[in-house]
Design goal:
By secondary structure, the chain is mainly α. It has a domain at about 15-90. Helix content is about 80%, strand content about 0%. It contains 4 helices and no strands. The protein has helices spanning about 15-50, 55-130, 140-145, 145-150.
């Protein structure tokens, strides 16, 4: 079985690693969002439970906001949001490096092709401009020779 060469690999828009990093950052961001929602729901249930036990709602919220709600909000935003942004940034960096290296390889190939074409052209021109002694006619040699001109005068 012979493998066919497709141009589809050369036409890819970007590296697969960047796509994986982008997807991972989205997944981590969604996990952080779910964790944030869970913490807020947990806070509401804790407040409702304390109020059901007979504590005043104002006292319960004033006590639970700094100890439960704020850490429950900042932790998912800081940890999961930071990891998601870090993964996204690494994906962008990977994409830019891939584009830079691809363009550098293309420019190197173009420079090599131009150098090869120039060398081939120089060789072809030098082969056509080289006159062998057998190619000269005796008339041309005498008319171009300065000694023969002096003799004619």
């Amino acid at each position: 079985m012979k493998l066919k060469k497709d141009g589809s690999l050369k036409k890819s828009k970007g590296p697969a690693g960047s796509l994986v990093l982008y997807i991972a950052s989205i997944v981590v961001a969604l996990m952080g969002l779910a964790y944030l929602v869970t913490n807020i729901v947990l806070f509401q249930k804790a407040v409702a439970q304390y109020v059901a036990q007979g504590y005043p709602a104002v006292t319960v919220t004033s006590q639970l906001i700094p100890s439960q709600l704020l850490p429950g909000i900042y932790e998912p935003i800081g940890v999961y949001g930071g990891i998601a942004l870090l993964l996204f940034g690494v994906g962008m960096l990977n994409q830019k490096l891939w584009n830079y290296l691809r363009l550098r390889d293309i420019s190197t190939e173009n420079a090599q092709l131009k150098a090869d074409e120039t060398n081939e052209t120089d060789i072809a021109v030098s082969e056509t401009n080289t006159l062998e002694p057998d190619d000269l006619k005796s008339d041309e040699f005498e008319s171009n020779n300065p000694e023969s001109r002096e003799e004619e005068q």
